[in-house]
Specification:
heterodimer, A: mainly alpha, MetI-like fold, 3 domains, three-stranded antiparallel beta sheet, 12 helices, 67% helix, 9% strand, flat, B: alpha/beta, Rossmann fold, 2 domains, six-stranded mixed beta sheet, four-stranded antiparallel beta sheet, 10 helices, 34% helix, 22% strand, globular
Chain lengths: 337, 267
Amino acid sequence: MMKNLSVNRDAKWHLDQPYNARHLLFAIAALLILAVTGSRMEVPRMVSETAQGVGYVVGLNDSSPVATGVKRIAESIWPLRISEEIEISRIENFDRNDLPWLSHVEVIESRTPHLNTETLQLEETVESKEVLVKPVGYLAHVLLKMLETLEMALWGTILAVILSIPLACFAAANYAPNRFIYNLSRSTISLFRAIPELVSALFLVLAFGFGPIAGFLALGIHSAGFLGKFYAEDIENADRGPQEALQSIGAGQIKTLWYGVLPQVLPQYVAYTLYILDRNIRMATVIGIVGAGGIGLELKGRFDMFNFDHVGTILVIIFLTVIILDQFSARLRSRLM
Amino acid sequence: MLRFDSVYKRFPDGTEAIRNISLQVPRGQFCVVLGPSGAGKSTLLRMLNGLSKPSEGSVYLGGELICDQSVQRLRKKVATVHQQFNLTPRMSVALNVLSGALPQVPHWRAGLGLFPASLREKACQLLDEVGLTPEHVSRRVSELSGGQQQRVGIARAFMMDPAVLLADEPVASLDPRISRGILELLHRQSRNHNTTVLCSLHQPDLAREFGDRIIAVNQGRLVFDGKPEQLTDKVCEELYHGALNHDHNKPVVAVPEFEPELEMAAA
């Protein structure tokens, strides 16, 4: 201590420039890394093609691959697919007198051109088929899938809370029964956090089959890693006073946690859990891509069939849901804190 | 009731908090521990509820040695009132008082917050005794004033009918007027419940007013032990200035023998 405070009275005053050779070396190294990784990431091509696309939009050049691609997608997405048509011949036990709600029967004529082998002319055959039209059928289907997605997120969060509470108690240095269990639960929490949902969902789909089980299990395991860490840190940082008061009368670990720690950290816990729920909903929308249920499964299927108008509807619904929930949970959290 | 036998306490960093203290406190006595900050008052008190273990020597409670095997059982006889109240914030006054009886309550009841009727009645009675009103019951403790919080702390301390009450600077974070009220309450409660009190204080005048007996520690040593009237202003001055000067060679204030008749009076 005292050594640091000793003053050399003979030292001359001088102020250095803020940079020296080390800073220069550091800057050169950073530039090198950026140059190498940038060229591997094809950043120059990205810049030139984006610029070309912008040029096309403002009318500076005639063609741009990027703009054409975007335009093609935009054209196929719009108009969004809201209705659903099903060929009546494909519906089993169809009853004309008892149509589903909001639906009607239409006759659609479809023309298929084909080559007449005798005249060598293209001829059109007109085929008419009856279809059952549900005006908001597809939208309803997507909304149902979205509901399933929300349920997956909810159960993923419930699973995360159930897993993380005991883990957090054992991973808090002041409540772990011994060093081994402390390290074990710490590393379990890290492991949970280290496995991305999409990866664990891939394997869970193999185990549980396609559907929401794999989805919410994957979400639950990953977010238990986050919640466990947050909870454990809160337990460690809680005010020691009340805990000491209860320990000193011999209340025991569990009761001390329940009465000395939990009331202190509960608002934080609720806020974390809401955040995780929010995050799980966003994640649940895409986790279906690997077959784990929810709206992602529908998205992947439609995308693979090039039904971009269906994809458009799905994306709009996801977008709206995430925005609404974001607002909702932000308000709820700010009220709790 | 309480006995310290040549107790030493050394912390891992080498500081000696307690040096060779031997002390007996009979049942029902209100014993004030005086001394400057860092003198070892808290450490002395914490040895009785097992939050601190003596490095050497032994501490007895009701004739039983406080050790690893007995500490959890003996703790139930010792209640503590803390300087910072140590109530659980965000929890209601009622639950804070009831939590003082947690060792008596089975886990499932504690977990659900279903305390037996007898304990709830006792909590109400104690809250009444410490001068709180029924409207305080469901309030959060963090909404109460410091003095009121300490009253809740005292109610909590008496939930298990403690044989010994440790008051670790119970009024150090309160203003002088409220301090007197809190000490009066502690004094009255311990008389009514026949509780032995070990109360550390900073203020010699309050010590003289409320203590049956005053002991003083300085730099981990017992430097004074006597009746309130023996604690003259001169003794106080020596006690506090002795600490400030860090004079190790200066002889400490004489330790008069503890007189038995006071022991009788207190019992």
